[in-house]
Design goal:
Distance between the termini: 63 Å
Strand content: 25-35%
Number of strands: 10
Largest sheet: 8 strands, antiparallel
Shape: globular
Number of helices: 2
Radius of gyration: 19 Å
Low-confidence stretches: 14-23
Helix content: 10-25%
Mean pLDDT: 85
Structural class: alpha+beta
Length: 156
């Protein structure tokens, strides 16, 4: 009976810790990997590196869609909800964006995102402005690998 109680208490503690971790990850922050080179040199600066950067994703900004030009955000793809992308906001609702031989006004409730490595980036130049509701959070820090741990600086 003593072993059963110990296992039951351990199970309850693990379950509680899991629920707390899930709540924190869902509502406040999470750690996500950065895949590919579309945000190089900010993330994954070495193309042949075996280790991707991992970043801290802050989610409090989602409460009132508090974003600024220069913020780096993770968002769901407008064409495939299962895919997530990471890009820099370069235009907010009402801003005018110059692309190729055209000028586009960012509509209300949307933003314009671009990768730092434009030669290797699928972004608003490909799919247009994205709804703010697709944004999953704002990147604040690189947390892995250890030699790259740092706070993210806005360019604008």
């Amino acid at each position: 009976m003593g072993t059963h109680n110990i296992l039951w208490n351990l199970t309850k503690k693990c379950f509680t810790a899991g629920l707390i971790g899930l709540t924190v990850s869902d509502r406040y922050f999470s750690v996500v990997p950065v895949r590919g080179t579309s945000m190089s040199p900010t993330f994954n600066p070495r193309a042949n590196s075996l280790t991707d950067d991992y970043v801290l994703l802050e989610k409090l900004c989602l409460e009132k869609y508090k974003f600024s030009s220069g913020d780096i955000v993770v968002f769901r793809s407008p064409s495939n909800y299962r895919e997530k992308h990471i890009k820099r906001i370069v235009g907010l609702p009402g801003d005018w964006i110059g692309i190729s031989h055209d000028v586009v006004k960012v509509p209300q409730g949307h933003c314009w995102v671009e990768g730092d490595n434009s030669a290797s980036s699928m972004d608003s130049r490909s799919f247009g402005p994205i709804p703010l509701g697709l944004i999953q959070g704002r990147v604040t820090h690189i947390v892995w690998p250890p030699q790259r741990i740092s706070k993210i600086k806005r360019l604008y």
